[in-house]
Amino acid sequence: MVDVVYFAWVREGVGKAQESVDPPAEVVTVADLIDWLGHEVLRDKTRLRAAVDQLFVPLDAPIAGAREVAIFPPVTGG
Amino acid sequence: MVDVVYFAWVREGVGKAQESVDPPAEVVTVADLIDWLGHEVLRDKTRLRAAVDQLFVPLDAPIAGAREVAIFPPVTGG
Amino acid sequence: MIRIRVSDAPLNVAAETVALDGLGGGAVATFTGLVRSDDGVDELLLEHYPGATEAALEKLAWEAVERWTLVGAIVVHRVGAMKPGEPIVFVAACAAHRAPALEACSFLIDRLKTDAPFWKREVRGGEARWVGQRSSDRDAADKWAKPN
Amino acid sequence: MIRIRVSDAPLNVAAETVALDGLGGGAVATFTGLVRSDDGVDELLLEHYPGATEAALEKLAWEAVERWTLVGAIVVHRVGAMKPGEPIVFVAACAAHRAPALEACSFLIDRLKTDAPFWKREVRGGEARWVGQRSSDRDAADKWAKPN
Predict the structure, then answer these.
(1) How far apart are CA B1 and CA C138, in angstroms?
(2) Considering only CB atoms, which chain A residues are within 8 Å of C89?
(3) What ipTM goes with this model?
(4) In what order do the strands lie in the sheet with A18-21?
């Protein structure tokens, strides 16, 4: 099981801030996970950024062993 | 008559903060004035900076019509 | 000395700066970002990624301290709802001399814009809109990349 | 908004910054120079050229306002006797965006070091010594010269 957390308009589009999922073995990377989740708002991956266990990673990073994967838009703080 | 004012170690070397002088006509520039004043501490002009009527000027600037000429070391504020 | 804070309480710049007193440094550079009032924004809402935010800011502050040999660094970011004129972010760098303090301060704010998980939503006339990332922010952050 | 002050009263950075509130700018960059305590200085004495100092600082502040389209600039300089840890100088620049605020702040402090008639004397163990100009200060000021 992995917790997937969403922020900003990704959270609004998915319709929830968090979900716990159990992806099959062929879901290897963050990008695979995004496809497998199948949410409409996640379709354009160029607009998405991710973190695995709270560390920023590229979308081709593996999720093996991760407890938390975060999916969100480019950041706009400061 | 022109007021000559001194600052920092120039003031200490001259031994006064201000003097009013009446230089002859051949004293045209700040450098001429410095030579004419004849103070020992003013001998090395590379160590001196000047202002005429409170505006910074190079030492070859004319002093004609000036009310106040200031002679001082390079500045070290901030 | 490193001080990081993410809070929905109003940001008091004067109070934050006190943390740099008595560190012995000769130079303190600060940057404060405020909600601008020049483009019709009634309210700014700031969302963040609790836990990851603090970790990102702490990493950023340590990087500045090591790169510019700072004696102190502060990064404070407001979250939640705020009004035009209110501070959103405050960064400060304290060093022995002015050049490292000024550079580290610019580094902190440039890199915070791309490295820390905050998202802005602007409310204008009752309508909320997520703010998009600016390419100029990515360029500003990229200029601090070290040559390999 | 331009604010210039030369005073022998202690410099209160927090109180100075208040002058930039409510100008509508989205970015405030500040620099504070403090008497360093790392080199055995017991007291710092600052002499200046009354009248000429204020004129030089005002000219400098206006130059920054025009060059970076600032909504506010502050230059405050302490004179007289001060102790290690006390602020000597405070400059601040307020602009719509962060890049001009940060650049103008650096400009103000770099150019103040060469353009304003202040002279420092350090007291160590009862002995006073005039501080000499640093070539690095001249270089820092020169980098702001505009191309012709």
Answers:
(1) 62
(2) 77-78
(3) 0.92
(4) A18-21, A2-6, A68-72, A49-52, A55-57
